[in-house]
Design goal:
alpha/beta; 4-stranded parallel sheet; binds phosphoric acid mono(formamide)ester
């Protein structure tokens, strides 16, 4: 369909086409070229959880292509505060806009929204579930700053609750990536995802320290411990501060090693790493713009791929 809910429904050809389209969008994303590709189109932005990058890069993407944005604003200022359901909200906004980008704390929320919407739904994160548009910008970053072919990557941090790594590893399996999972035991990648990945042809290994991976991989993808998803705050305290990248740890790293992070970070990447040649997380955040431009153009029918 025209919705973007999960990476599991993307073929490799489809991803490659989106990444190529994003590359052509880059001069427009940078403001160096103008485009009216989405003139007259309206994107509704429904975020029921905090966001800086996803929300603002979707809005920028829409404006850079000549479109407009309609923001629900804070949940408290909307009729959600009076108890309106997600289903009813979607049925109403369906009549106001041409596409809806949705972030919601409940896993499965985007899928549910799609059932009540005649216009495209873009999942911008559903609880600990999926974050497919983040994955596409992650893949774009890997393609631009490292290599997608024959990639060796370590995913580190909160692999249990981290939706960005859940979506990303499904996509990486299409490219036959060698994936090293690094997490505290309590935050391991869910067993069913690991078994899916193996079925899809990925090579997966698990460990609990970053040190050994540094000289083995092309990319280390760090993630924040998802404090807001822990049922018990004491459990969070046990795992907080366990995994950290510092400039010292990178002293003997190969120059080509890239450190990525979906951001926001708490303290899992020392700010001293920012000035090294390895850091590419701020560039990664920028790449959200051309990638989301490509996705919006696609779901709004302005381009075909
Ligand atoms: N990476 C990401 O989703 O960031 P935000 O939560 O700021 O949108």
């Amino acid at each position: 369909g025209h919705h973007i809910i999960s990476m599991t429904s993307f073929s490799r050809d489809m991803i490659d086409s989106i990444l190529e389209t994003a590359e052509r969008m880059e001069p427009i994303a940078l403001g160096k070229q103008r485009s009216g590709l989405l003139t007259g189109k309206i994107l509704a932005v429904l975020f029921f959880e905090p966001s800086t990058r996803t929300r603002m890069s979707f809005e920028t993407a829409m404006y850079r292509l000549g479109g407009d944005v309609l923001n629900l604003g804070s949940v408290d200022a909307s009729s959600i505060a009076k108890g309106e359901t997600l289903a009813d909200t979607i049925r109403v906004v369906d009549g106001y806009a041409d596409a809806i980008v949705l972030r919601h704390p409940k896993e499965g929320a985007a899928q549910l929204a799609a059932e009540f919407s005649t216009i495209p739904i873009l999942n911008a994160g559903d609880g600990a579930g999926h974050h497919p548009t983040q994955t596409l910008l992650d893949l774009y970053t890997i393609k631009r700053e490292s290599r997608l072919e024959g990639l060796k990557i370590a995913l580190a941090g909160d692999l249990k609750y981290g939706r960005t790594v859940h979506s990303l590893c499904y996509a990486l399996s299409l490219y036959g990536a060698e994936i090293t999972l690094i997490s505290p035991r309590e935050l391991r990648m869910p067993e069913e995802i690991i078994s899916d990945l193996e079925k899809r042809g990925a090579k997966v290994t698990e460990t609990d320290t970053i040190e050994d991976a540094i000289n083995e991989v092309d990319v280390i993808y760090m993630t924040r411990i998802q404090k807001e998803r822990f049922p018990d705050p004491a459990e969070y305290e046990k795992v907080a501060n366990r995994l950290k990248i510092t400039p010292e740890l990178l002293t003997d790293a190969r120059p080509e090693l890239r450190i990525m992070h979906p951001l926001p970070r708490v303290n899992e990447i020392d700010t001293g790493v920012d000035e090294t040649q390895h850091a590419c997380y701020f560039k990664q955040a920028f790449y959200g713009v051309p990638v989301r431009m490509a996705l919006l153009a696609l779901v709004l029918g302005a381009i075909e791929i």
